[in-house]
Amino acid sequence: MTPAVPRPASRPRLLVVSPNRSHLALLARRLGAEGYAIVTAADGATALGELRRSPIDLVLAELVMEPMSGPELTRAIREQLAFAEVPVMLIASRAEADPAVRAFEAGAEDVILKPFHFEVLVARIERRRAAAERVASMRADMKAMDARAAMKAIELGELKDRMYQLEAERRRVSA
């Protein structure tokens, strides 16, 4: 196992969802040791409640859960505008038929097949988080550019009005 990489003061918050208590505890402990702030949920309804309660940077959930499956949880997350951009990764057993297809159709960013190497899981989490941060940064930049464009349009309108006033004044003086 690689040593934990030091993280900034604001630790990324991961929501880990699994009905299997021992699996949930293991993931929470190992991911916590990697520097993540871990929030856990035993089912989809609880996970949605946790998403509403505090900001989450990434959701890591089991594909097979009852009563709400991983793909159903993913759809529920995607349907809510406030959470639509939160990356979702689903964990699936190799024995499950077409897990990736169901997960991706629901809007998940990634599917991790069991058994997996923990280091690979962490690398994939970081890759998904980095991509989400780039998208958020681009959106913020676009919003700032839109605001600047709106200000420039207002300034241009004001200059145009001033030009018409000056032109009207020039005509009045020359008449």
Automatic annotation (TrEMBL):
Keyword Phosphoprotein: yes
Domain (Response regulatory): residue spans on this chain: 13-129
PROSITE patterns associated with the record: RESPONSE_REGULATORY
One Pfam entry name: Response_reg
Any Gene Ontology biological process: regulation of DNA-templated transcription
InterPro entries: CheY-like_superfamily (IPR011006), Sig_transdc_resp-reg_receiver (IPR001789), WalR-like (IPR039420)
Keywords, in A-Z order: DNA-binding, Phosphoprotein, Transcription, Transcription regulation, Two-component regulatory system
GO cellular component: cytosol; protein-DNA complex
SUPFAM superfamilies listed in its UniProt record: CheY-like
Gene Ontology molecular function: phosphorelay response regulator activity; transcription cis-regulatory region binding
Descriptive protein name: DNA-binding response OmpR family regulator
